[in-house]
Amino acid sequence: MRKAFINLSSLLIVVLIISPVMLDAQDLSLPTPMTSGGKPLMDALSERQSSRSFSDRELSLQQLSDLLWAAWGINRPADGKRTAPSSNNRQEMDVYVTLKSGLYLYDANVNMLKQIHDRDIRALTGTQEFPATAPVNLVYVADLTKRGLKEGQTITDADLLSSWANTGFMAQNVYLYCASAGLSTVIRAMVPRQDLAAAMMLKPMQVIILAQTIGYGVK
Fold first, then answer.
1. 12, 38, 72, 108: which has the fewest Cβ within 10 Å?
2. Cα 35 from Cα 46, distance rounded (Å)
3. Phi/psi at 18 (nearest 5 deg)?
4. What is the pTM for the complete model shown?
5. What is the per-residue pLDDT across 182-218, written as a single tens digit (0 to 9) for each?
């Protein structure tokens, strides 16, 4: 009986030790982004284009890491500044990533995709057919509390002006990365924002700006 009790106690200790890891087991740690190389800027600009035809081939974690760093990564670690401009350095933008395996929030500080849930909501990121099967859809979300708004306050067009501009910078970074890496992309304003916000479990002061689809093109 004493031996059985010791074995049970040992099992409980092991469970307690590993359970914090298990709770975050669906988060995706990304490899260090490759921040050098690629095509020369003028070549990438020459090849930058929108595409609405995507295969279902998934991107690697390295590609996701490079893509997200290009969009909104930290390029000046000393002061936490980003690869895209941010009005008054408010950094109110968040990049959500919808994959077949679920919905994630990009955390540039730890270079990780933090899982929000494990439901495939790619189809909700656009009104066209291709977002549902393309491997990656980014959703650019403005957290207006970081711009000083309070919950319950009316959101005006002026409140969103900077966020629209900041999203444009981020999306263009993705375009240039895709042109350099041989991937296809398109930025999209046709987004069912109310349904998507509910599926993403966003708060009232979190506003969807645009979505962007990324993947391999169909040859």
1. 12
2. 21
3. -90, -15
4. 0.88
5. 999 999 999 999 999 999 999 999 999 999 999 999 9
Query: Which positions ≥6 away from 151 have C-beta within 8 Å?
Result: 145, 203, 204, 205
The amino acid sitting at 53 is S
For 183, phi and psi rounded to 5 degrees? -110, 165
- What DSSP string runs through 168-195? HHHHHHHHHHHHHHT-EEEEE----HHH
* 49-100 confidence digits (pLDDT tens): 999 999 999 999 999 999 999 999 999 999 999 999 999 999 999 999 999 9
Rounded CA-CA distance 55/75 in Å is 31
Q: Using CA atoms, how far apart are residues 104 and 65, in angstroms rounded to an integer? A: 13
* Contact in structure between 64 and 113 (CB atoms under 8 Å): yes
Helices (H), the chain: 2-23, 41-47, 61-72, 157-181, 193-200
DSSP alpha helix (H) spans, 48-151: 61-72
Q: What are the structural domains of the chain?
A: 26-215 (3.40.109.10)
Q: What is the residue-averaged pLDDT of the chain?
A: 91
- End-to-end, the C-alpha distance of the chain in Å comes to 67
With tokens 């319950």, the residue in question is 152
The answer to whether 61 and 147 have CB atoms below 8 angstroms apart is no
Q: Which residues pair with 46 in a beta bridge?
A: none
